[in-house]
């Protein structure tokens, strides 16, 4: 069951203008907004209440984070291009763009790995101070989201891509949905970067 | 945006413009952080740039600019609660009980 | 996926009843699991009530079961009492009522009432049940840990919870699972309501229960994530040594804690109540929805002010996000912000009163049938009324100073949730039972269950208000015996305890009725209550895919006693 009996799985419902998956992913993203919103709120709350607050740039590595920002932004445009290729029915271009997206995501994780290990080498742990606690918590949660997105993208590149043969339109929607999530992960980083590193 | 008759050329151009703007804004925000200003001004500037960048991502990559009413209003609702969540705890720090 | 089309009737047992994607099976799974949890949570409190009524006397018969670390010689230790209290709250709220009101009722009824073949995402639906189940298992498993289950109250206030035993870590993991499950469920419910409405079923033709579940879905979706964030932070405080919720220089058992400090315990309260106040409305809105359906059917009248009800519930849902700090008047917040929250709190009582009023006016001049579901629904109204009105002194910060953290608070919210929500849920079970099983529940046994529960519930919770007004604090292991100001009211503890145990006996009647009626109940036809809404237009029990032919809706949800019509009800899918 599912495809045959659940209406509006692929096609758009006339009065709402969306299909089920589109609405579903946006609802999921609203809950993500509230999740990260709570963390940002805690950040502001703790920072205002703190006796002293270290400058992020004095502890964290700005060039590395700038590089990571570039990786994520670039992966966002390749993600959207992979969807656009499917709309144009160009499956091989889709595969190329999706592969680049995944590689950029992996590059982000590699840079993050070096950042974390540099912190640990200097004996900077979450327990060192509240700023570092927040840094590890917020970036850690973001990294988990990146990993989740990567798993999804790898699935859509390899085993999931079979659906292109049977239900091309549904597959295109899936890639669009995955893209919305991936852009959101990018969007969170756009805020994390200045708040943690630059201020 | 699942219609097949998308003007892909036009899309491509928009995406590239957005991409380049995002990269430039990233550069600006990093550069600005090295200019010595007051903390308040620095935070304001960085948050303004971040908001512009996120609106670009949401508006164009996530197609929010042409999205349906139902999704738009869901996000407006979320934004309101987000503001509650950010500012109200803050007020309780700024307005402690006075003895 | 596509290959399953023709094989739905030959699914093996475990696919059909255990890992099912059918919303009705999942609804029943949610229902049975949460009823078990409700009874378990009730058992915990019955143990506590022994300690409160007869402090430091051995628990009779079963006292030896709890081991020397919890109850040496059958006498309950304070640590064990705290575990019971914390887990009673957690289990009742997160594993009992929410899964029953939302998981069970929304899953079973929403697709039927909107005329859909299933939920929008059936596999996600199955996942949300099993994640919830895992969360429940983690919570129960924590009782067997060294140091026992979480013991810092269902609110898990920091810094107490941060320095608590390992049970608290399990509590946090359990909450992660439960939150995930709720988020998945909420997305599913909202998408189903918005996307899968039958042709002709516009928003203002939706049964009110569907509206209530829609608002509830949004509350779960947007209020739970902040608690998830807070739980991550508490987990890091416990495991990674951070100090998000730990102030500088905290002394525990005579030693300064090694954490760096600089955090704020109040932050936990903000994030917790940001969830937990909307959560109160998650508990009550589905109940109001159920009661509305039952009152309309059994008074054979349209709901008076259907649109008023809808706008009230929308406003209620929205405002519930702006009142949370009325739980925190005593945390040292200034007068400006406490006035703000006092004002929003009193504003939010207005739509609640509007809802109660419309339901009372609906009864006026109706041909009321006093069957079991209707009795429970009718009792809900004054019980929820008492619960709501006793809340007003807590919302005003001047009176809250005296009443905060006393038994008055316990009495207040139990009136809302126990004889309020739980009565509505009982009403719902009695009412939709014939649709689920094809047989009616026994009405005589139902009435015994109802009157017994009504008397006992009030016998338990009304004295709590009195004890609280005398100033006795909640969460006291001996019920306040050691305090002079408690002496005049201390004897109420025994009364309350006896009523609690008698209440349990009446629930046994319900349990018996629930199972006995599956085989021996009076046979029911497809629409035994002569109701208008779409769930009664399906065969009984509804088959896989629900409707024989996809329904088309022509009428509003409460077309009862329509003038000039041959029957006194006009089903939603009947063209006039």
How is this structure best described in words?
The complex is a heterotrimer of chains A (199), B (99) and C (576). By secondary structure, chain A is an all-alpha fold. Chain A has helices spanning 20-49, 56-59, 62-87, 91-121, 130-157, 163-166, 168-198. Chain B contains 3 helices and no strands. Chain B has helices spanning 8-34, 39-61, 69-94. In chain B, α1 (8-34) packs antiparallel against α2 (39-61). Chain B is flat, with a radius of gyration of 19 Å. Chain B starts with 7 loop residues before the first helix and ends in a 5-residue tail after the last helix. With 576 residues, chain C is mostly helical. Chain C has a single domain (25-246, 262-537), classed as Cytochrome C Oxidase, Chain A, CATH 1.20.210.10. Chain C has helices spanning 13-18, 23-53, 78-113, 122-141, 167-195, 208-239, 265-299, 306-319, 335-363, 372-389, 392-395, 397-403, 407-437, 443-469, 492-520; strands at 251-252, 255-256. In chain C, α3 packs parallel to α5 and α7 (265-299) packs parallel to α9 (335-363). Chains A and B meet through α1, α3 and α7 of A and α1, α2 and α3 of B.
């Amino acid at each position: 069951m599912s495809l045959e009996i659940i209406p509006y799985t692929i096609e758009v419902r006339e009065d709402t203008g969306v299909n089920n998956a589109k609405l579903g992913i946006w609802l999921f993203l609203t809950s993500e907004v509230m999740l990260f919103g709570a963390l940002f709120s805690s950040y502001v709350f703790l920072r205002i209440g703190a006796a002293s607050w270290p400058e992020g740039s004095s502890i964290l590595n700005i060039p590395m984070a700038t590089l990571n920002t570039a990786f994520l932004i670039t992966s966002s445009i390749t993600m959207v291009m992979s969807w656009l290729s499917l709309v144009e029915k160009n499956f091989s271009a889709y595969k190329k763009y999706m592969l680049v997206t995944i590689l950029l995501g992996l590059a982000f994780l590699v840079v993050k790995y070096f950042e974390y290990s540099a912190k640990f080498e200097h004996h900077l742990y979450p327990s060192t101070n509240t700023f570092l606690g927040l840094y590890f918590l917020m970036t850690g949660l973001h990294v988990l989201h990146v990993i989740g997105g990567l798993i999804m993208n790898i699935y859509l590149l390899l085993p999931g891509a079979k659906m292109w043969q049977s239900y091309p339109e549904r597959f295109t929607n899936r890639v669009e949905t995955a893209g919305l999530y991936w852009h959101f992960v990018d969007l969170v980083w756009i805020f994390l970067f200045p708040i943690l590193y630059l201020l | 945006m699942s219609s097949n008759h998308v003007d892909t050329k036009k899309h491509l151009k928009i995406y590239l413009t957005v991409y380049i703007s995002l990269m430039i804004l990233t550069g600006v925000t990093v550069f600005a952080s090295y200019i010595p200003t007051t903390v308040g001004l620095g935070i304001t500037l960085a948050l303004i740039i971040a908001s512009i960048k996120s609106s670009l991502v949401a508006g164009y990559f996530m197609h929010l600019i042409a999205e349906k009413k139902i999704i738009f209003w869901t996000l407006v609702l979320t934004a309101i609660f987000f503001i509650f969540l950010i500012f109200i705890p803050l007020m309780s720090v700024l307005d402690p009980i006075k003895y | 996926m596509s290959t399953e089309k023709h094989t739905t009737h030959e699914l093996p047992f475990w696919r059909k009843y255990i890992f099912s994607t059918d919303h009705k099976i999942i609804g029943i799974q949610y229902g049975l699991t949460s009823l078990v949890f409700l009874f378990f949570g009730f058992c915990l409190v019955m143990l506590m009530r022994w300690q409160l009524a007869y402090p430091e006397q051995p628990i009779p018969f079963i006292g030896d079961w709890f081991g020397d670390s919890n109850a040496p010689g059958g006498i309950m230790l304070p640590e064990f009492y705290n575990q019971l209290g914390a887990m009673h709250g957690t289990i009742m709220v997160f594993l009992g009522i929410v899964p029953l009101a939302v998981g069970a009722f929304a899953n079973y009824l929403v697709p039927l009432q909107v005329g859909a073949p299933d939920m929008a995402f059936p596999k996600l639906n199955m996942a949300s049940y099993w994640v919830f189940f895992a969360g429940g298992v983690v919570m129960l498993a924590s009782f067997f840990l060294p140091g026992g289950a979480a013991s810092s109250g269902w609110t898990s206030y920091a810094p107490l919870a941060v320095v608590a035993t390992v049970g608290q870590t399990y509590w946090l993991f359990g909450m992660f699972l439960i939150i995930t499950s709720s988020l998945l469920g909420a997305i599913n419910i909202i998408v189903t309501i918005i996307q899968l409405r039958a042709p002709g079923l516009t928003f203002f033709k939706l049964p009110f229960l569907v509206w209530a579940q829609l608002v509830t879905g949004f509350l779960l979706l947007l209020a739970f994530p902040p608690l998830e964030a807070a739980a991550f932070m508490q987990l890091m405080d416990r495991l990674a040594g951070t100090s998000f919720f730990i102030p500088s220089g905290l002394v525990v058992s005579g030693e300064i804690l090694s954490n760096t400090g600089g955090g704020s315990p109040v932050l936990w309260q903000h994030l917790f109540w940001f969830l937990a106040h909307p959560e109160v409305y998650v508990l009550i809105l589905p109940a109001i929805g159920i009661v509305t359906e039952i009152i309309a059917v059994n008074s054979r009248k349209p709901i008076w002010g259907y649109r008023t009800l809808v706008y009230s519930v929308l406003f209620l849902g929205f405002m519930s996000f702006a009142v949370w700090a009325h739980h925190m008047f005593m945390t040292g917040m200034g007068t400006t912000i406490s006035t703000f929250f006092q004002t929003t709190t009193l504003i939010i009582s207005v739509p609640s009163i509007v809802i109660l009023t419309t339901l009372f006016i609906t009864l006026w001049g109706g041909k009321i049938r006093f069957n079991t579901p209707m009795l429970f629904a009718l009792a809900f109204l004054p019980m929820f009324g008492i619960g709501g009105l006793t809340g007003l002194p807590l919302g005003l910060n001047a009176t809250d100073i005296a009443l905060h953290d006393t038994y008055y608070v316990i009495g207040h919210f139990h009136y809302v949730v126990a004889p309020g929500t739980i009565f509505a849920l009982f009403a719902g079970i009695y009412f939709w039972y014939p649709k689920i099983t094809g047989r009616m529940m026994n009405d005589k046994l139902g009435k015994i269950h109802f009157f017994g529960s009504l008397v006992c519930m009030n016998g338990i919770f009304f004295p709590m208000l009195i004890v609280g007004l005398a100033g006795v604090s909640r969460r006291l292991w001996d019920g306040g015996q050691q305090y002079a100001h408690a002496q005049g009211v201390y004897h109420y503890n025994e009364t309350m305890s006896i009523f609690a145990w008698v209440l349990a006996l009446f629930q046994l009647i319900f349990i018996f009725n629930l199972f006995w009626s599956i085989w021996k109940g009076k046979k029911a036809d497809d629409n035994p209550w002569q109701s208008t809404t779409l769930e009664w237009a399906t065969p009984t029990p509804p088959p896989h895919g629900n409707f024989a032919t996809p329904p088309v809706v022509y009428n509003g949800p409460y077309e009862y006693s329509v003038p000039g019509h041959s029957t006194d009800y006009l089903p939603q899918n009947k063209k006039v």
